[in-house]
């Protein structure tokens, strides 16, 4: 537990969070290397199964980062994404993995600080929650 | 005459008929129903006995009717389509008639959703209009609903309910016409608080001459408290309690509210007596049966005719 | 379509506890349309079940298959090549699909993943409403195209009851009063007179009253 480094998957919308990550980089803002960014054309493109598979494969936390309310390039992709995240949270609670491992966050392309801050906060939250309980079985599988 | 029932005779005599109701107890307590019925003895022509009212389990209407019959009074067997299919309904009608019960009220009943068994199956094999038709055919054709002949057909005097206040208002006279077409002999209405609206409904009833085809009894329920008035307005579906009435109840001190409620009922009866087509009153004093004699007396509905029962 | 909803995960996990290898079978028809048991839902449930077991330190091997139609024997036959590898089957079809699989593979335990709910229509995205109870003798011609059996809480054929308020049902203000809808529709069609034709008591033999039903089309039977 002491040297637990969580693996976080962040599905980042091309129009906002992904650019914000870029901005964070060019501003030399620090954020934890635990966050693995997956670029998506819109947060609305992230399906429930993507989040589930990330966790099943051993991610300790997953978040979807979409545009601010009303700013979605595709009108309401971010709203759809938020609803899907809520659905997955419930499902994860039901199977005892815990819905708090999944989050929806909103930001604009210019919010480099927000990106870095969100990445840090979520990483710390997941660090406190500890490893994804499915991980040990996964590791055993890999070892075998 | 279609039946030997006291109610039909009272209507035929031209007198205003008076009925009241007893809710059977929620337990195997014969004395409860007897005690309630005795309060009404001599003040009403017949007593409705509710059938699992508000969808809560109570002693069966049939059994409670028998107790009332044994007191020498005339019970009205209420029956809802919610709990029984047509076999069970007809069986109970035969049984009731064999016990000398010859008036009934055909209802669909409150939905189980409102009662203590919301998980129960909702039977509704037939609806209240079809129910009236079934009882009429049992009596007049001597046939079960399935078509077979009945040995000694039950001669039931058939009642149904009407709610002049439910929506859509424009259908309320038409729905009455459907029940009359099905064979209803008398109607007991929902509690009337909005007298203007009731009179408007009666205008529609008279326009079609329906008041000559059926005996309409106006439903009266005295309010005990302003709280009850508010509850009925807000929570009881299809109930129309005007704001003035609530204001009037609220305007008297708490300990006088019951008296005010009785007074309102009596005033309503006095006014409704003048409405052409109103042939009687159905006084539903819910868990307040002891007040019925006073209402009947003060409304000038005494003495009740004795020669018919 | 036939609508359904997934059962609580706890119930599903409990069903599968004794097994290590299962077939999780979806259906491409109604349950896909109502987002309960199509390919997508099969994937999500498969993932959820596997994680639930991993959490307990066990593994559940899930083979995901979505059939074109689980209520047709021709399609169910496609499971033949997979059935032997599985200790049990979990079906994400309606009750018809579950039974079709159970009937075909007699020695294999089959569990329903869904609660089949009703025959309905999409009211809007994500909302399905009951429209038909399959009574076997359609009355829609009499009632302006709105079914009082499926849509009136008391299935009144001669409604509305005294609990209709502002067009809503007394049972739930979110439910439209079917008879208000019928009346509005009869008026729109100029058929107000129809309202006063008393509709006769229904013969439930064409419905569930007659026991399990069967349709035989002699011209099609082989």
Question: Would you write up a description of this structure?
Answer:
The complex is a heterotrimer of chains A (144), B (309) and C (222). Chain A has 144 residues and is an alpha/beta fold. Chain A has helices spanning 17-26, 48-56, 77-94, 112-129, 135-143, and strands at 8-13, 35-40, 61-66, 102-106. In chain A, strand 1 (8-13), helix 1 and strand 2 form a beta-alpha-beta unit. With 309 residues, chain B is α/β, with parallel strands linked by helices. Chain B has a single domain (6-298), classed as TIM Barrel (Alpha-Beta Barrel). Chain B contains eleven helices and eight strands. Chain B has helices at 6-13, 30-40, 61-70, 86-98, 128-140, 172-182, 195-207, 226-235, 243-250, 257-273, 292-298, and strands at 17-22, 46-49, 75-80, 103-107, 157-162, 186-191, 215-220, 278-283. Chain B has an eight-stranded parallel β-barrel, surrounded by six helices. In chain B, helix 9 (243-250) runs antiparallel to helix 10 (257-273). Chain C has two domains: 2-118, Rossmann fold (3-Layer(aba) Sandwich), CATH 3.40.50; 135-204, no CATH class. In chain C, a hairpin with a 2-residue loop joins strand 6 and strand 7. The longest helix of chain C is centred in the N-terminal third of the chain and has 17 residues, at 39-55. Chain C is elongated and about 65 Å long. The model of chain C has no long low-confidence stretch (mean pLDDT 96). At the B-C interface, helix 5 and helix 6 of B face helix 8 of C.
Give the CA-CA distance, first to last residue of chain A: 23 Å
Determine and state the CATH class of chain B: Alpha Beta
Q: Beta-strand percentage of chain B?
A: 5-15%
Radius of gyration of chain B: 18 Å
Contiguous uncertain segments of 5+ residues of chain A: none
Number of strands of chain B: 8
How do the strands of the widest beta sheet of chain B line up side by side? 1-2-3-4-5-6-7-8
- Element-level helix/strand string of chain B: HEHEHEHEHEHEHEHHHEH
**Largest sheet, strands/sense/barrel of chain A:** 4 strands, parallel
Question: Please, what is the oligomeric state?
Answer: heterotrimer
